[in-house]
Every structure is written in C-alpha cells, then in structure tokens.
C-alpha cells in the first residue's frame, strides 16, 4: 500500500474517532459520527447551520473552505476564544478534534455560546471573503468558467491571449470527480509544476446535470484532454503516450532518465482523474454516429463536404527574396504563427496562413515562392490515431472513421481493435485482452462491443499546428466541459501598450450560429451572484 493511502486512512480514522466523542459530549449518539454524509448533517445541526450546506461540501474548492468553517464553528462551541488556538485547531483539525473529544476538561457549550460577542471589522471582512470564494467557486463549477487561450491551435478563430467565458450549462455541468480541491486551481498548485492541488481521498462517479442542448457540429468546445490521464510531470507539454512511442516505456517511466527533446529528466509519471486533466479547446468536427473523412485537407461528414471555418489555416513554405526577417509584412497581414528554416542563401519560413493572408502574401514583391504543405493519401504517419500501420492515415488524408454513439454495437477484429481499445479499456474501464486472433473483454471472448457513452471528434482551426483528435482519437462525453461563448478580454504581445485587441473585447464566439441561450447562460449566474450577495450575512452567522 502506498504511504499516502496509509496517511489518509490514519487521518480519516482520527477525524471520525474525534467526532464520535464530540457527538457524545454534545448529547448525540456516537454512532452518528461514523455514517458518511449523515455525520456531516448532524455536525451542521450542532453548529446551527442549515442542512443545504451539505451540497456545498460536494463542490470542489468550496468543500475545503466549508470543512474549515465547520471545524472553526465546532471548536468555538467548546469555549475557545484564543486566536492562536483557533487557528491551530483548524489547521491541525485531524488531531485537535480527537483532543477536545477525549479531554475531560473540554466541555461543549452549544452554538449560542459565542454569538454574544461583538462582530469586529476583521470578522466582517473575513466572512465577506469566504462568501465571495464560495459563490465564485459555485459559479465556476456549475455555470461558467474563465479560460485563457495559450496556444495557436485555433487561430484565427481564437487567438493566443483571448480570455474566454465557457458556458457549462450549454451541455450540462459535470459534478466533480474529485471534490477535495484547493479553490481556483485545476490540477497543480500555483507557482509549481508538480505539486497537486487536489486529493483523491474522495472520488465521485460521473454525473452531468441537464443542459440547454447537446454538442453540435462546428461548436467550439472545451474538454478534458483524453491523453492527459497519464503525465510525465517534467514533460507535460507532450503526450505521455507519444513519449512512450518515441523513447520506450521503460525510459519514460524512469524519473531520472533524460528527455532527449529537452535535456531535462522526464520526472515522475502520475495518473490524473478526468476532471483534473488539462483543458483543451477545439472545434467539434463530427458528433456521435457521424462518418468522418479528410480528403486532401477537406473534411467530409457523412459523405458531404463540411463547412470550413472562415479563418481556417494551413501550413505553407514561403521563400523570401530578402535576407532579413519580414516582420513588418507579418504584422501587416496579421501572420502570427511562423517558424524560420535556415537554408543556404535562402530565407524560408513555414507560415500558417488562412486564405485571406495567403492571397495577400502572393502579391508581395518580397515573396519568391509559396508552396503549400500536404501529406499524400496513403502516406502513413505513426503519430496519427490509431497509431497502427493497418490504417495508413495522416493529418491531411484521414478515415473514413465512424464516430461511436452510445448504445451502438460494433464488430471487433484484430484490425479495428486499434480504433476501440482505448475506449473499451480506459474510457469505459473494461479489462481488454488481445491474444493472437482472440479478443476478450472482462474475461469473456468477444467479437462485438456496445458503446457505453457518446464520443466526438475535435480539430483545431489551425489545421497544421493543432494537437487534436487526429493524434489521440475520440473525446468521450464525460470529458466535455462546456461551450466557448464569449470573449471578455484579448491581449496581444505583438502590439504596443496597452496591447489590447479592442475589436475582440466583449464579443460572442461564432459556434454553430449564435445560441439563443447565450443570454440565459450568462445572466442566470450573475443574478444568482446578486441574490447571494444581498443575503451574504446569513452565510456565516444566524441570529
């Protein structure tokens, strides 16, 4: 057993033993402290707080804050007024609660004991801050969340430096898998690269609340990165599975082994639950039941040519007849994704261009040649899903591929198992074994499989500079986070002070048309915040 689980078990036992004795001192039955969920309900009664606080204990970030508040209130009921003792009791609650439970000199005074004391300015501000954190975390978990675009995979539809609001009510908010989370963090503590900001002491099953609709073709969707279930902590910018294909499992899983790409160690390899995997944003190209094919860079869905994003980009090799970097031309044509190739007597760049700036570039007198990049049909790329030579696909010629739909059954054989093995084994958690020509699932021979959830195919609008479903396959429904709906701020490093793209501030994002629900998706959380703030004084103190 890992040391962390031993520590977790010891702390949880200490907490429940302490509550057992405290409940008896408070006139309750000791066994009530041993029933998960019910013990929290009784605890709330002892500190005179409403039962609906139980729901707050299920929200990541909020639950930690609520636990600390409940410990604080419980300790105060034992006639504790010394600030240092209160802080120590809250911080070391797993040890302090057993102490006051077993100590004969500690007596439970009840929830009314400390209400006679005057509320100071410090107390007022502390309560306001706690309330703000709770409300913000609820909105962030169930309604909308702010995201920043860090990479150019969606240029020019979304730009590096765009600040987005992502609606979680569009498709229905997910309840958290790991509710024990530090507020306003994702998977890592601020200012660190490897320290987790969550605990897996409690893991909840997947559940999605009702939403305004389903994911549609061409929606811009935020989702948990499917390949992010396993991560080499010192090489998080590259898929763990790609690292294994490149350097072998043994090397990548040796923390001190040197990564040839960076010259640094790979670091520890860790697993992350679904809700703690990196957030990606891409366009949904195909939905469950669709048949997808890419022919010479053009996407076809169900045999019909798909609508291309207005600002879709591809890679071109561009030769300039001047030796210096043509930065002024790049700025004029809004070319922001460029890499230079050093070649003798030539100034060649790989530029990611949309049709508009490509055509404008052709008219420049300093451009000698523009050559489009395209992988030929039948040219096998081992980095392309399903990473099998049985499917000689590449980023420009891909498929045809049927997108799995919940309840649909597919025949299995030793060739197409490469398409579905990750679905069966990882996403739907079955024991899949392939031995020669035999396939078994959960110990039973199988020649077919019925999908347990829907799947999606995502691609970036910057088609030649996007790590998307072409590289790691399907996106499960339980990985969907929300719809990108609104840009509230946009900053560019290519502009002078104040480097704000004013034309993008407070603009809606073009999805599959402007959703009629956008107004509700944004206004409902704001109304809830207003209603909550107007009643904030009831949050900590009940008189």
Structure summary:
With about 550 residues, the chain is α+β, with helices and mostly antiparallel strands. The protein has helices spanning about 5-25, 40-45, 55, 60-75, 85-90, 95-100, 120-140, 240-245, 250, 325-330, 355-360, 415-425, 470, 520-535, 535-540; strands at about 145-150, 160-165, 180, 200, 220-225, 230, 270, 280-285, 290-295, 300, 305, 315-320, 340-345, 345-355, 365-370, 400, 410, 430-435, 440, 445, 450, 455-460, 475, 480-490, 505-510. β13 (about 340-345) and β14 form a beta hairpin.
Task: Provide structural commentary.
It contains 15 helices and 25 strands. With 543 residues, it is α+β, with helices and mostly antiparallel strands. Among the domains are: 114 residues, no CATH class; 59 residues, Peptidase S8 propeptide/proteinase inhibitor I9 (Alpha-Beta Plaits, 2-Layer Sandwich). The strands form 7 sheets. Strands 1, 2, 5, 8, 22, 23, 24 and 25 form an 8-stranded antiparallel sheet that branches. A 4-stranded antiparallel sheet has the order 11-10-9-16, with no helix packed on it. The longest helix is centred in the first third of the chain and has 23 residues. The radius of gyration is 28 Å and the shape is globular.
Tags for this entry?
single chain, 543 residues, alpha+beta, Alpha-Beta Plaits, eight-stranded antiparallel beta sheet, four-stranded antiparallel beta sheet, 28% helix, globular
